[in-house]
Design a protein that fits this description.
Blueprint lengths: L2 H17 L4 H16 L4 H6 L11 H13 L3 H8 L10 E2 H16 L4 E7 H4 L4 E2 L1 E8 L2 H10 L7 E3 L2 E5 L5 E8 L3 H9 L2 H15 L6 H5 L5 H7 L15 H5 L15 E5 L10 H10 L4 E7 L11 H14 L6 E9 L10 H4 L4 E5 L8 H13 L5 E2 L17 H11 L2 E5 L9 H9 L4 E4 L11 H10 L13 H13 L1
Parallel strand pairs: 4-7, 8-9, 9-10, 10-11, 11-12, 12-13, 13-14
Antiparallel strand pairs: 1-3, 2-4, 5-6, 6-7
Helix pairs in contact: 1-2, 1-5, 17-18, 19-20
Bound molecules: zinc ion (ZN) (2 copies).
One zinc ion binds next to loops.
Length: about 500
C-alpha cells in the first residue's frame, strides 16, 4: 500500500464523515492527515515502523493509530462501518456539491455496469452544479425497465429503493437521498432535460415549445420526435442551447432568444492557480510538490501565496521568511517548465491596512488580501476595512470576500454593493475561492462583478497538492455566474496575467 492509497482512504473517511454531518474537527483531522500523508517524500510504512508518525505535521495520536491500522490490515474499520451502517436519523438537508459529486460519480460507474442498463447520467441540482444540493439524482435508461429494476436492487446500496412510477428513492447510509429516474432508452434525453433544469426554467421552455409546435413534453407526439440531444429541445423552443449550469430561470431563456447568451468559460481555458499554500505556512506540501502537481495539470503558472506574519495560527511568514521564500522560488524556477509566481495572502488588519509593508508587496508577483479575523464586526466596519484594503495600490485581489463557510458560518455582514463599487474604481479583482465549503464569492456575486466590469480570478486556496483539483468547483461557480473567458484572469497566459495584475500599481 502506497502513501497515495492511504491518503485516499483517509480523505474518503473525511468525506463520509462530512456527508453524515459529523463533528467538523473530526472531519478536519482526517483531511489534514490525508494531506500530510499525500505530501510526504518518505514511505509512510517506514515512518510507521520507526514510530515517527506523530512527528509528521498534521498527524495526531488518533490519526496515527488509524494509519497504523490501514498499514496492518489494508482497511479502515471506521470506513467500513460507516458505509454499511444504518441511516442517520436525520436526513442531511444540504450537502456540499463536492461531496454529492463524489457519490454521484461513484454511483454512475457502478450502475452502468449492471445488466440491461443502457445509460446513466447525473441530473438535477448536481448537474447544474448548485453550491449545495438536497440529494443526488440520476437518470437511468434500460431496454426493459422491469428487468432493470431487478438488476438495480441486486446492488447492495440500492436494495431498499422504494419505487413509484419508475422513480426510485432511497436514503443512503451517509444520510443522502438518492433518486433514480428510470426510463426506456428513447425517452432518456427528454427525461434528462426535464429533471435537470430548475422548475421555472423547464416550465418556460415547455410553454415555448407548446406555443411553437403544439407539442407537450409528455405527449406521445413528442416521444415520436426522437430527440437525440438536449440541443434539439431548445431548437424546438427556438432557442440557442443552454448549458445545465445556466438553467436556473435567471434570464437565460430571454437571453437565448436573440442569441445573446454568453459563451461561458470552459475548464480547458484555465491556465493557473493564483492562491495556494505550502509547508512554509499552513500547507502540507512543499513548493516543489505543488509546482509539480500544477505542471501535471497542464498549468502555465502557479502562485505561491502563503499567509502573512500576523496570522500566527496558520504559521504566517515573517518578512524575513517571506524574503527567503522569494529567493528560494527564484532559484527553483529553472527546474520547472511552469512559471512559479511569488506571492502572499496578506491579512487585512483591523484598520484596513495590509499585513506587510508596501515596499515588500511591490516586489511580489501576486498579492491577495483577505479578512481572517474580526469576522463578527458590524457592516460598516467590515466594509470599510475591505474597501480600504482595495485602496492599497499593491493589493491585486480580495480573497474569499464574504468569509462564509457553507453549513458552518454565515458570510460576514458586508455591503457587497460598496465592495463592487470600490473594486471597480480601484481596479481590484475579486476571487472565486474554490474550497468546497467556501465557494466565495458565489455565482450571483460573480455575475454582479462581471456586470460591474470587475475582473474575477478563480483559485483553489489549496493547502496540499490534492486540493488543486477543487478548481472544477470554482469554475462551475464562474459558469453559473455567466462568466466568459475574458472575465476570468486565470485564462490569460503567463505574460498577460502579470501585466494585468501589475497594472493597478502603475495607475
Ligand atoms: Zn484565506
Ligand atoms: Zn488562503
Amino acid at each position: 500500500m502506497q502513501n497515495r492509497d492511504i491518503a485516499e482512504m483517509l480523505n474518503r473517511a473525511a468525506q463520509v464523515l462530512a456527508l453524515r454531518g459529523e463533528n467538523r474537527y473530526r472531519i478536519r483531522a482526517y483531511k489534514k492527515a490525508a494531506h500530510a500523508v499525500a505530501s510526504l517524500d518518505e514511505d509512510i510504512k517506514i515512518i510507521a515502523a520507526e514510530n515517527r508518525l506523530q512527528q509528521v505535521t498534521g498527524i495526531g495520536p488518533a490519526l496515527a493509530a488509524k494509519i497504523e491500522e490501514i498499514i496492518a490490515t489494508g482497511k479502515l474499520g471506521l470506513l467500513e462501518r460507516l458505509e454499511t451502517s444504518r441511516i442517520p436519523k436525520e436526513k442531511n438537508k444540504n450537502i456540499l456539491l463536492a461531496a454529492a459529486l463524489t457519490l454521484a460519480n461513484e454511483l454512475v460507474t457502478k450502475i452502468e455496469k449492471l445488466r440491461g442498463i443502457k445509460q446513466v447520467q447525473v441530473t438535477g441540482a448536481v448537474r447544474r452544479r448548485q453550491e449545495t444540493v438536497p440529494g443526488v439524482e440520476l437518470v437511468v435508461s434500460a431496454e426493459n425497465v422491469v428487468l432493470a429494476q431487478e438488476a438495480l436492487s441486486t446492488y447492495p446500496l440500492l436494495q431498499r429503493l422504494s419505487w413509484e412510477n419508475m422513480v426510485g428513492r432511497v436514503v443512503h447510509s451517509y444520510g443522502i437521498e438518492i433518486t433514480l429516474y428510470l426510463t426506456r432508452e428513447e425517452n432518456f434525453i427528454p427525461l434528462l432535460w426535464k429533471t435537470t433544469g430548475s422548475a421555472g426554467h423547464v416550465k418556460k421552455v415547455m410553454t415555448r415549445i407548446k406555443r411553437k409546435t403544439g407539442y407537450d413534453l409528455n405527449s406521445p407526439e413528442f416521444a415520436k420526435l426522437q430527440i437525440g440531444k438536449e440541443d434539439d429541445i431548445y431548437a424546438l423552443a427556438d432557442l440557442m442551447p443552454i448549458i445545465p449550469e445556466l438553467r436556473e430561470d435567471r434570464g437565460e431563456i430571454e437571453a437565448a432568444e436573440p442569441g445573446k447568451l454568453p459563451r461561458v468559460m470552459e475548464a480547458s481555458d484555465y491556465k493557473g492557480d493564483l492562491h495556494v499554500h505550502t509547508n512554509w505556512s499552513d500547507g502540507t506540501a512543499s513548493i516543489e510538490k505543488m509546482a509539480a502537481a500544477a505542471a501535471e495539470l497542464g498549468y502555465e503558472y502557479l502562485a505561491i501565496t502563503d499567509h502573512s506574519r500576523s496570522l500566527k495560527i496558520a504559521r504566517g511568514l515573517s518578512l524575513e521568511r517571506l524574503g527567503e521564500q522569494k529567493k528560494y522560488i527564484e532559484a527553483l524556477q529553472d527546474k520547472y517548465k511552469i512559471r512559479i509566481f511569488t506571492g502572499i495572502e496578506a491579512d487585512i488588519l483591523d484598520d484596513g491596512s495590509i499585513d506587510a509593508p508596501n515596499e515588500i508587496l511591490a516586489e511580489l508577483d501576486v498579492v491577495i488580501a483577505s479578512v481572517h479575523r474580526g469576522l463578527n464586526q458590524d457592516r460598516e466596519k467590515i466594509t470599510e476595512r475591505i474597501c480600504r484594503a482595495m485602496q492599497n495600490p499593491y493589493v491585486q485581489v480580495i480573497g474569499h470576500a464574504t468569509g462564509r463557510l457553507l453549513g458552518q458560518r454565515d458570510p460576514y455582514d458586508v455591503d457587497f454593493e460598496e465592495v463592487l463599487r470600490v473594486a471597480a474604481s480601484t481596479g481590484t479583482a475579486l476571487e472565486i475561492n474554490s474550497s468546497p465549503d467556501r465557494l466565495d464569492i458565489n455565482d450571483r456575486m460573480a455575475r454582479q462583478a462581471k456586470e460591474a466590469g470587475i475582473a474575477v480570478v478563480i483559485n483553489t486556496d489549496a493547502h496540499s497538492q490534492l486540493e488543486l483539483a477543487n478548481i472544477a468547483l470554482g469554475i462551475s461557480v464562474a459558469r453559473r455566474g455567466w462568466l466568459e473567458k475574458k472575465d476570468v484572469l486565470n485564462t490569460y497566459d503567463k505574460q498577460q496575467i502579470l501585466t494585468v495584475l501589475q497594472q493597478k500599481k502603475r495607475r
